[in-house]
Amino acid sequence: MKAFFVLATILLPVSLATMFFTTGAAAACSNVPSMKIEDACKACPGKSAYAACKETLRSAPDPAEVTTYVLMVARKAHLKYNSTMNTINLELGAGKGRRQEEKEAMVYCRDMHEKAYDLMASGAAHLSGCDFGLAEGKFSWALSTTGACLNIVRETAFPSSWMADLVKPGFDLTVVVETLAYLLIHAS
Fold first, then answer.
1. Which of 7, 62, 79, 81 could form a disulfide with 117 if both were Cys (CB 3.0 to 4.6 A apart)?
2. Using CA atoms, how far apart are residues 170 and 55, in angstroms rounded to an integer?
C-alpha cells in the first residue's frame, strides 16, 4: 500500500504536468517563426544552456515553430523544479547536521523553485493562449527566482557542491526557456 501511495504521489503530478504542457500547444497562433534546433540553441548564452537546449530538443521536429521548442523546454524545467523541491525537502527532513545558514539557503531555494514552478506553468498557459508578452514575463520571473537560488547557494559556500549540482540544471533550462521566448517575441 505504501508503494502505491509513493507511486501515485510521483506519477499524478508528472501526468498532470505532461497533460498541461502538451494540450493546446499554441498551434493556433499566427505569425509564429520556425527555426532549426541548432539555430535556436545557438541563441542560448553559455555552454551549459546550449547543452540543456540540445539535450531537451533532441527528439523535437527540426525545424519547428519556436512555440514547440519553448513548451518542450518549459515542461522539462517544470518537472525539474518539482524534483528539486522534493530533493530539498528530503534533505531537510533527513536531520543531517547542517549549519543554520545552509538550512536557510535550502528553504530559500525550495521556496524559489516553488515560485518558478508556478511561473513556468503560468507562462506555458499564456503561451498556449498566444499571449507571448505575458508568457515571456512569467518566464523572466522564473529565471529571476532560479537565479536568486543559485546565487544564494554560491554565497553560502556549501561544503560540497551537491546543492549547486541540484539547482544548476533547472536554472539552465530556465535560461533556455527565457531565451527561446525572447526569440519568439522578437522574431514574430
1. 81
2. 13
